[in-house]
Amino acid sequence: MNLKRILAIANKEFIQIRRDPRSLGLALVIPVFLLIIFGYGLSLDIDRVPTVIWNQDTTSQLTRNFLLNFKYSKYFKIIRYTDNYRDIERLIDNGTAMMALVIPKDFSHYIKAGKTAPLQLLVDGSDSNTATIAMGYVNSVVGKYNVNLLTYTLAQYGLKPSRTVEMRSRVWFNMGLNSRWFIVPGVIAMIIMIIAALLTSICIAREWERGTMEQLISTPVKPPELIIGKLIPYFTIGLFDLTVGVIMARFVFGVPFMGSYVLLFFLSALFLIGALSQGIFISAVARTQLLASQLATLTTFIPTMLLSGFIYPIFNMPPAVQAVTYFVPARYYIVIVRGLFLKGNGIDVMWDEALFLLLFAIMMFGLALKKFKKRVV
Hints:
With 377 residues, the protein is α/β, with parallel strands linked by helices. The chain has helices spanning 3-19, 29-41, 61-71, 85-93, 107-112, 128-156, 179-200, 203-210, 213-217, 223-251, 261-286, 289-306, 319-325, 329-343, 347-371, and strands at 49-55, 76-81, 99-103, 117-124, 165-172. The chain is elongated, with a radius of gyration of 26 Å. 39% of the residues are buried.
């Protein structure tokens, strides 16, 4: 490949962007698509919250009876029983668990002695809305136990049912349950996807519509050089928008950044390359700007908004919709961005998401290269 030809194509695309700053229209099928997604695929009710249990009072039947209230509740899904904080931290860090209940070893002793029994609740506060609702569910279960089950349990020991269970909650990563800390990192991912897929989806189609593709075909520019040259301007814009988004998140919205900026920009570059290549592939397939913008909206913008975990928790979606989310690249990128901002995760925690972004970038660039041919059809 020739670097001069690549830079010439990139310079041409920069000029084209300055001359044609048109906004992309939405297709008529988008409202239908939204109705299907909202009506059948998503629910605003939070249930099946992934929960870890550490019961240190394993010999007591009273404690086991208390935990049955969580086991048989539709609002909780006990994914694992553990015996240490290390497992709890790992499961909450990688997003496998949303919260953890820790039962102290003297739990039943406190109840039998007529004292207030402590209960520790650890909650992932990076999704503040879901965390608040989950804590409300736990409070409801504990309150019901205090009013009903605990009355009969204490009566067996001849004690007055005046003592209750006391829950001591501790929220991780977002102690104030500030919803901006959850939303802003997701918005950054949305911005990058819009710049990457929606804008690049029309760049090659525009060449075909205006008749300038024939001129490019007659030049010595090779397909890889043409694609890379067209990616460079939008890649630059994407990194600029990422920088602006991070600055605004930190200093305008007050979102803490606990991770590595180098890792953030490196993984964002992988996501950008994949999304840009997907836009080029769509543009090469569609050959018209209207169809390209429609396909880009259907395959990138809408899934990113609804099926990536940006707004709605994935674990609360129906199993069939959850399976679809594994093919949405933004799902993995949003996990990375929120993990870097709120949890300070390293590559050891996010290596699987990073691997998917790498494979996605390679696959989409290969598809774009294979689809684009230097010939008039």
